[in-house]
Amino acid sequence: METAAPVQRRVPRPRADAVRNRERIVTAAREMFVEFGPDVPLDEIARRAGVGNATVYRNFPDRDALVREVVCSVMDRTSEEAERALAETGDAFEALSRFVHAAADERISALCPMVSSTFDQHHPDLEAAGERIEQLVASLMERARTAGQLRPDVAVGDLMIGVAQLSRPPAGTGCMSLDRFVHRHLQLFLDGLRAPARSTLPGTAATMEDLRQA
């Protein structure tokens, strides 16, 4: 006697309005985390997103889940910008510059410190987003180095430290009022990365592993 094959049940797709609500929540949370820090009340996030409190909790059972989603979404968008720069920009150093300025626009320096202070840094989603962006930045830097445009004594960690330091202050400390300085100072930093190097850097090139162990 043959056993009937199990019926494959189709997983229902989320409704379009549910997807839009989730996107609105993440966008509102990102804005408010940057402006006020990670402790902003979830009720205020719901109000800015234009949804009810229950909708926020239905999508994100706790604050950690929402912060993690915001950080991952920022890292994903920054990675997408790196991919576009690799694909679209013929000049290797210009592609690297485009990534650096995009990372600042995404407020990556204001949001990423929340990782260590609010939830497990080793969550699979966060690790996957981090590995993706690290590999893409390494590709951008290697292409610029191969083209003779990037000084040879810098690594991915050096670049990410520079972006983080120059696009601060951190979330919740009036960073919006200092926006006009960010891209100016980042461009000065990028000019210092160009080859040929005009000085000898102290110490050794910083890797992402160095940053993780710091």
Automatic annotation (TrEMBL):
SUPFAM superfamilies: Homeodomain-like, Tetracyclin repressor-like, C-terminal domain. InterPro entries: Homeodomain-like_sf (IPR009057), HTH-type_TetR-like_transc_reg (IPR050109), HTH_TetR (IPR001647), Tet_transcr_reg_TetR-rel_C_sf (IPR036271), TetR_SbtR-like_C (IPR049445). The keyword Phosphoprotein does not apply. Residues 19-78 form the HTH tetR-type domain. It comes from the Bacteria. Pfam families: TetR_C_43, TetR_N. GO terms for molecular function: DNA-binding transcription factor activity; transcription cis-regulatory region binding. Keywords: DNA-binding, Transcription, Transcription regulation. Residues 41-60 bind DNA. This is TetR family transcriptional regulator.
